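Bit of a strange request maybe. I'm writing a small parser for structure token strings and I need a real example to test against, not something I typed by hand. Could someone generate the tokens for this chain?
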Amino acid sequence: MIAARTIGKVFSQQHIAFAGRRAPVDAVSFATKAAASLPDLPYDYGALEPIISAEIMKIHHQKHHQAYVNNFNIAQEKYLDAEAKGDISTMVSLQGAIKFNGGGHVNHSIFWTNLAPPTCGGGEAPTGDLSHAINSEFGSLQAFQDKFSAVTAAVQGSGWGWLGYDKAAKKLAIATCANQDPLSITGLVPLLGIDVWEHAYYLQYKNMRPDYLKAIWKVVNWRNVAERYAAAKS
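Reply from user aminoacidic:
Good idea to test on real output. This should exercise your parser:
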């Protein structure tokens, strides 16, 4: 079970990005002081077209992500009130809402910066250390993309596909998480996350999740992923 303070520690590892900047979130302030807020996108809603429509981006950001933020703040406030009263039963009952909505906020804050319009580098192949690590672990960028897409397409129901960094093994790893579980609870550091909840693609791709996953590589921001990789190794 994950309490508010533990989720705060999870958030502190995520390097949540706001408007193109990575802003590490302090665990204590997140759990006891600061309310979560919706980050601005580092591009216009229509900037990822035709890969992701402006309509999807606007609804996804303004409605879905905002809902996670709002519900996390409500749950956090209730948790802290219960904690002050020593109401353990209520504290335990709120852990699911904190994990789900807090995870939704973390995941989406990473997702927005993992994407970029082609005019800003979206879709450009990774270079340097990240490229070398991908080739070493998966054989080639294309082999990685194929494996990632296949694993993520197979997610049952709603969830996320992730490229993460395993600090203990010092290597990259592909993983999936159900619902809004943040990747860091698996022990991996999140580098690239792809949302496969239907709200991320259904208006445009209908039930063809594999088509969405094939297309999204054209707007992946590998520069952002490389920054996260460098930070994870340091």
